[in-house]
Design goal:
The complex is a heterodimer. By secondary structure, chain A is α/β, with parallel strands linked by helices. Helices cover 39% and strands 15% of the residues of chain A. Chain A is globular. The chains are: A alpha/beta, B alpha+beta. At the A-B interface, helix 1 of A face helix 1 and helix 2 of B.
Chain lengths: 159, 75
């Protein structure tokens, strides 16, 4: 086979359904033997949060941000018909019925398939998220590192 | 040609059939045949495209009672 192809995805959204789409495409691309990078920025960082409470030193504003944002992939809302949390409950029920993988499972699969999960450090600062609050084994970078991967990319998405 | 390996992907939803197929195919030798059973309707187009991209040969594909069977030769 020819040289390794690349897929790069920017996950900006913190919506469960959009993140699911991103992770399904990423896992599919890995099955195509692509080298895959998902660059998480702004609300997309919440997909990488650990679901347990991590005590870290923070300012007041950062604390409020941390409280208001979903702690981990499973707590994210959906982009349409969220209905104060009823929507995600319903969609998770339907997903179970159709044997679709949940977002936390898709993230785990991505890790198994050696997909590079990257957290944008600049937006981590803005949202007051610290490395201890995010999943272990991920990478930290900025726009240049992302572009380094994306410029050789064959598939590049912004979700 | 008999299949060298059989992958049961019945009941699995997208993207699992191709993810599993890749995993099994990786451990196989060129020329060996992988048989895949799936129920996901998308797998028909998915596995055809995946085989083509990976340089594998989709030898046969059929549907019986909602179960899709694919025979793919590793290229």
């Amino acid at each position: 086979m020819s040289e390794t192809k690349r897929t790069t995805i920017v996950l900006f959204s913190g919506d469960y359904d959009k993140a699911m789409a991103a992770y399904i495409i990423a896992n599919g691309a890995a099955a195509y033997d692509h080298q895959v990078t998902i660059f998480h920025t702004f609300w997309g960082l919440n997909a990488l949060r650990k679901d347990e409470l991590v005590s870290v030193k923070k300012g007041l504003l950062e604390k409020v941000f941390g409280k208001m944002m979903p702690r981990g992939a499973n707590k994210m809302g959906i982009s349409k018909m969220n209905y104060a949390g009823m929507g995600p409950k319903m969609i998770k029920h339907v997903m179970k019925k159709h044997n679709a993988m949940t977002l936390p499972q898709l993230i785990e699969l991505a890790e198994e398939q050696d997909i590079k999960l990257v957290a944008c450090t600049m937006t981590m600062d803005l949202l007051g998220l610290q490395q201890d609050e995010l999943l272990d084994g991920i990478e930290y970078a900025g726009v240049a590192a992302y572009l380094g991967d994306a410029q050789d990319g064959n598939v590049n998405l912004f979700i | 040609m008999n299949a060298n390996k059989v992958l049961d992907a019945k009941g699995l939803a997208c993207p699992m059939p191709v993810v599993r197929a890749r995993k099994v195919m990786k451990e196989m030798e060129t020329g060996e045949v992988l048989e895949i059973l799936a129920t996901d309707k998308g797998s028909v187009a998915d596995l055809a495209a995946w085989s083509k991209s990976g340089g594998h040969d989709l030898l046969e594909q059929k549907e019986e009672g909602g179960i899709f069977t694919f025979r793919i030769q590793k290229g």
